[in-house]
Amino acid sequence: MWHMFMKNCILKNNDVIFLNKKYFWYYKRFFDIFLSILLFPILIIVMIVVLFFNLIFNKGSLFFIQKRMGKNCKPFYAMKFRTMKYSKTIDRKFSDPLEHDRITNFGKVLRKYRIDELPQILNVLKGEMSLIGPRPDYYEHALIFLDNVPLYKERHAIRPGISGLSQIRYGYVEGLSETKKKTKIDLYYIHNVSLSLEIKVFFGTLYTIIKGIN
After folding, report:
1. Is 150 within 8 Å of 119 (Cβ atoms)?
2. pLDDT of residue 71
3. Computed from CA positions of residues 26, 117, 193, 38, in that sequence, does the dihedral angle turn out positive or negative?
4. How many whole angstroms separate alpha carbon 210 and alpha carbon 139?
5. Based on the structure, what is the number of domains in the chain?
6. pLDDT along the chain (214 residues), means of 10
7. pLDDT (0 to 100) of residue 96
8. In the prediction, which pLDDT does 175 show?
9. Where are the alpha helices (DSSP H) in 10-21?
10. 77 near 135, Cβ under 8 Å?
11. Does the predicted TM-score (pTM) go above 0.90?
């Protein structure tokens, strides 16, 4: 049953997405690796700083690792700096708002300036993510979206991103209606991807980080 699900979810490589811009995706992967290697020393420095402040303001594990849905709907484990109080299980349903009461004061700072996302460059180096692409959803919620959001499967034709077009337009979304809007933007990105669009998302992400937009 699991095998059949994965077979139905995987998109064919001869899809028009890849036929039209075959070499773009190769170059995109090259720059993902190149830029992630450049960012790696920054990650180490930030990790040491976050670890220090965690001892005072955010006691607990340094990282938060969560199962997400990646390319071809395959699961992977995304890494982030922990911003919330520890919980054994994730009780939040796909339609529930973010649990703001669990976010620590230091975690709010990490989230505001997107510092918590920085460890995901390790996911990029592992080939599980890209620097820019559709944001990966929590795996259990994504399974529900597959059955209830039109074309949600298609947004997994490429690697998910640390930032993306829908991310800078909508930010954090919840529920089916918002996920449908996000999916439309993600599909627009996939089918219209270009260097100019990548640059647009890059500077949009910088603006979001500098302004501390939630």
Report:
1. no
2. 96
3. negative
4. 30
5. 1
6. 40 51 89 96 96 90 95 97 78 66 89 94 97 95 94 95 92 86 94 93 90 67
7. 59
8. 84
9. 16-20
10. no
11. no
Whether 208 and 114 have beta carbons less than 8 Å apart is answered as yes
Write down the H helix ranges in 58-174.
105-112, 121-125, 139-148, 165-170
Q: Which residue has the tokens 């071809």?
A: 72
Longest dimension (CA), the chain: 52
Centroid of chain to Cα 67: 11
The single residue listed with the structure tokens 């800078």 is 168
Structure tokens at 99: 């649990």
* Burial of residue 87 (number of CB atoms within 10 Å: 0-12, 13-18, 19+): exposed
| Whole-angstrom distance, CA of residue 8 vs CA of residue 142 | 15
Q: Strands of 70-190 (E only): list them.
A: 75-81, 130-132, 161-163
- Domain span at residue 91? 2-211
